[in-house]
Amino acid sequence: MAYSEKVIDHYQNPKNVGTLDKNKKSVGTGLVGAPECGDVMRLQIEVDDATGMIIDAKFKTFGCGSAIASSSLATEWLKGKSVTEAMTIDNMDIVEELHLPPVKIHCSVLAEDAIKAAINDYRVKNGLEVFKFDEKIVH
Amino acid sequence: MLNLPVYLDHNATTPCDPRVVDAMIPYFTNHFGNAASRNHPFGWQAEEAVDYAREQVAKLIGADPKEIIFTSGATEGNNLAIKGVFEMYASKGNHIITATTEHKAVLDTCKHIEKEGGEVTYLAVGADGLIDLKELEAAIKPTTILVSIMYANNETGTIQPVKEMSAIAKKHGVLFFTDATQAVGKIPVDVNKDGIDLMAFTAHKMYGPKGVGALYVRRKNPRVKVTAQIDGGGHERGMRSGTLNVPGIVGFGKACELAMNEMEADAKRLSILRNKLESALLKLEEAYVNGSTVYRLPHVANISFKYVEGEGLLMGFNKNIALSSGSACTSASLEPSYVLKALGLGDDLAHSSLRFGLGRFTTEEQIDYTIESVSNTVLKLREMSPLWEMYKEGIDINTIEWAHH
């Protein structure tokens, strides 16, 4: 199975690899997946309290090229969006952008889950309730 | 000079040796006869070529040419041996003993046997991948008709104690079959010294062509019979019908002859290269060899690089280096290698494994290049791995509650 050029590009030149200070109130961290499944994604956002805009996003991923590309792309999309806008990122957008084949759709689901988890971590830290996203059946 | 791409997946298949191809070519064009045509020179020539190849194949494994049944490959050989014995010896019993680390061609055949009313015991292996001889003996019952344990494992290269296992089987009057696909042509295999009753192997793992293999079926002490699984013209002493693949068989014979002459030197050279590769890669932190390092094929190394995922790792260099991983991110189940799991490896380590299979045409320059590429990619991906970061911070990833999906 050949990877798409976009997946290869993200794999070779991943955007926003790194770590934000998870103890900061303005930082939300999402850690999803499991080592047993062969994918673990950690996605972090830093939000400007005044504007509600995501000013920075970082990731680290243990997984295949598609998982790395999905998280790298997610961080690119997150930067500059408001938290509310970020909540609308759908895994199928990632699938389309990276031309992921059916067997790799779970990588995009994981990235979406990581975004949601990071947003909720940020919300809880800032005294907001956990936002209940619609459950996805796709795996 | 460095030749790219580097092929280190010789456990999957090997290139045809050019000398094998040269031997085969006349049998596609000039000598195209059917070896079963008894009435004209075309048939005689083909039959003569098959007879000669049968001798070459038999000689490599210390067998009599009459004991060689040509097949389409090892999968067919495994099917014929297990199903053939199960049907032929039905009056004696219905119990077969095998192991959890066998190839799918054996395991799935055993599953089929179970559906047909047979009983199968799947022996576990130790952390080194080896069968416990006491467990094997304890598993033998009055109804046991066959022990089916591979000679050497396709993922780890671990070599089983074949001689000892066959002696146990013999002591209890049970037949001993071995899937020797990875071993024949790579290490000395002798059906008499090893006490083997049936043995499947194939040409394309030993620099021969694809689509041809053999099943060794012992004719003396004891005389073994298998029920044919393919009916037809009664070729191969009635055990395997079908027009013989003459060019393939000629190539297989040539490959066996070359292996006979060159195996020792190849094995010596490749073990030096393998050891160089392995010791260099083990200098990376948290890298572990899977399977026995004592009883192992000379050209194989299976190494887990903790905290990086195998498929992601392959992507770092798969344009220039062909390798396999025990991770299975592409399969629907996402299950990593069952062979590595059977050694007691956690799923995380199984997902982090690479299988290196060196071969006759592997050069030292290629190994040096592989060491550099793999090491660099491991280091790069670890910088990107949240698990590596946790490990470096002293967090035990096993204490984290992961959301399984």
Taken in chain order, the helices and strands of chain A follow as HEEEHHHH
What is the 3D shape of chain B?
globular
Order of helices and strands of chain B: EHHEHEHEHEHEEEHEEHEEHHEHH
Rg measurement of chain A, Å: 14 Å
- What is the CA–CA distance across the termini of chain A? 20 Å
Helical residues, percent of chain B: 25-40%
The total of helices of chain A stands at 5
Broad shape of chain A: globular
| Widest beta sheet: strand line-up of chain A | 1-2-3
Euclidean distance between termini CA atoms of chain B = 47 Å
Number of strands of chain B: 13
Largest interface: A-B, 35 and 33 residues
**Mean of residue pLDDT values of chain A:** 93
Largest sheet report of chain B? 7 strands, mixed
Structural class of chain B: alpha/beta
Helix fraction of chain A, binned, reads 25-40%
Percent of residues in beta strands of chain B:
5-15%
The rounded Rg of chain B comes to: 22 Å
Uncertain residue ranges of chain A: none
- Number of helix segments of chain B? 12
Largest sheet of chain A: 3 strands, antiparallel
List the helices and strands and how they pair.
The complex is a heterodimer of chains A (139) and B (405).
Chain A: H1 5-12, E1 27-34, E2 39-48, E3 53-62, H2 65-78, H3 83-86, H4 91-98, H5 105-125
Antiparallel strand pairs in A: 1-2, 2-3
Helix pairs in contact in A: 1-2, 2-5, 4-5
Chain B: E1 6-7, H1 18-24, H2 41-60, E2 68-71, H3 74-88, E3 95-99, H4 104-115, E4 119-123, H5 133-139, E5 144-148, H6 162-171, E6 175-179, E7 198-202, E8 213-217, H7 246-281, E9 287-289, E10 300-305, H8 310-315, E11 321-322, E12 324-325, H9 338-342, H10 347-351, E13 353-357, H11 364-383, H12 386-392
Parallel strand pairs in B: 1-11, 3-4, 3-5, 5-6, 6-7
Antiparallel strand pairs in B: 2-8, 7-8, 9-10, 10-13, 12-13
Helix pairs in contact in B: 1-7, 2-7, 3-4, 7-11
